[in-house]
Amino acid sequence: MLRSRKDRPKKVKMLTRDFVEDSLYNPNYGYFSKQVVIFNSGEPFQFNNMRDNLDFFSVLGKRYTQFEDALDENAFNDTRQLWHTPTELFRPYYGEAIARYLVTNYLLAHHPFHDLIIYELGAGNGTLMLNILDYIRACHPDVYERTQFKVIEISSALAARQASQLTSSASSKGHARHVEIINKSVFNWDIYVSAPCYFLALEVFDNFGHDTIRYDHFTEEPHQGMVLIDQVGDFYEFYSKQIDPVADRYLRTRHAAHRKPFKHPLSGNRVVRNLKARLPLAPNLTVPEYIPTGLMQFFEMLRVYFPQHQLVTSDFNDLPERISGFGSPVVQTRYQRRTVPVTTPYVQQGYFDILFPVDFAVMEDIYQAITGKLTKVMSHEEFLKRWAFVEETKTLSGENPMLSWYKNASVMLGVT
Questions:
Q1: In what order do the strands lie in the sheet with 338-342?
Q2: Which of 115, 149, 116 is nearest to 133 (CA)?
């Protein structure tokens, strides 16, 4: 219902997860639908000719400026939301590492009985898609003939961008018969896929909808957060004892599935917590906890519609400058080419990125409980050391930006 709105809602109350999803993905004013521009570096960086990480950072800064200057020549924009991904910074090497992983596992588990079917959720500029297909075509032509690459993209603008990439050169045109771009939300998916497939979800979980929960200090009863939007568009946060079925299901699943202690507002010594709650002017509820209900719903969709999927996901396990709370997001915008962080998720819809860290330990437990599948979690660096040709991104000093950047990222892989 919210996706059909052409104007930002007023005189309504919304769950936090609905507000986040509407802010980021509404097709008429959402952040990813209307504001985001993904950096394209032009030619791949020549890491072997750079002195060190600082040299790479300098070259990247110059290309960023050139890229945005070119955009401003066509249409000046003080509030352009420009950001980058590891796929773009380290192409084609990053995409080739993922391609090696996919092909190796496909040959071991499914060849020659099944095609190599790859789904990518949120493909950005389409760069990862092209890098993977280029590698498979060059190194495994027999597998390439049996490769199907399907993009699930919620943004119409990015879906059009991905389609244009397939016609941008003679080389990419050859991939067109292997690619299908499906412009819809993955949460509206309704097609049963019985065949084995690989599901790529890279840097997308951090923008899934989250709910806010605060707990009574003494009874530990949860209260669910909502936002009231008045007639002029101002936001008022409030909490209710009534927990909706989705948030309740997440809390019950996490309680049943978790194998290790995890951080949340009720962690620590209960007596100390209660004493602090009795101090003058102390709030009657704990600080908020942001729970990834959207991620749970995604896992439920995989279980129902992709029973033979193998998940490949990477995301941030921690983020700087987060707002107050457990599992809280970074909320920020760009103005005049500078990043401006704020301290609440309830901001003008469409102009702010709302970016959550992923607790991989909890996520792994919930994924296994919902799908019944085994997984392995490793650092971003560990995955790339296994599957990338790291010499290609090594600088003259021996530093390797592809390994040293994104230290705050992890990878979770399905295990067959």
A1: 338-342, 330-335, 353-355
A2: 149
User: At 139, phi and psi to the nearest 5?
Assistant: -105, -20
Closest among 54, 10, 52, 3 to 32, alpha carbons compared:
3
Q: For the chain, give the mean pLDDT.
A: 94
Per-residue burial over 359-378, b if 16 or more Cβ lie within 10 Å, else e, is bbbbbbbbbeebbebebebb
Question: What is each CA distance from 211 to 37, 155, 208, 377, in whole angstroms?
Answer: 27, 23, 10, 25
Burial of 231 (0-12, 13-18, 19+ CB in 10 A): exposed
Distance CA 184, CA 181 (A): 9
CA 122 to CA 62: how far, in whole Å?
Answer: 27
Provide the percentage of residues in the chain whose pLDDT is more than 70.
Answer: 99
Q: Which residue in 245, 204, 233 sits closest to 24, CA to CA?
A: 204
Asked if residue 199 lies in contact with residue 302, where contact means CB atoms within 8 angstroms, the answer is: yes
243-246 — which CB contacts under 8 Å span 24+ positions?
243/213, 244/15, 244/211, 246/17, 246/211, 246/293, 246/296, 246/297
SS3 82: strand
Q: Is 245 a residue whose pLDDT tops 70?
A: yes
Q: Is the pLDDT of residue 182 over 60?
A: yes
Residue 268's pLDDT is what? 79
Q: What is the pLDDT of residue 3?
A: 63
- Report the side by side order of strands in the sheet with 147-152: 179-182, 147-152, 116-121, 197-202, 309-316, 409-415, 374-379
Judge whether 81 and 23 are in contact, CB under 8 Å: no
- Whether a cis peptide bond, with omega within 30° of 0, leads into 112 is yes
Over its C-alpha atoms, the chain yields an Rg (Å, rounded) of: 22
Handedness of CA 257, 246, 225, 409 (dihedral sign): positive
Name the DSSP letter for residue 33. Answer: I
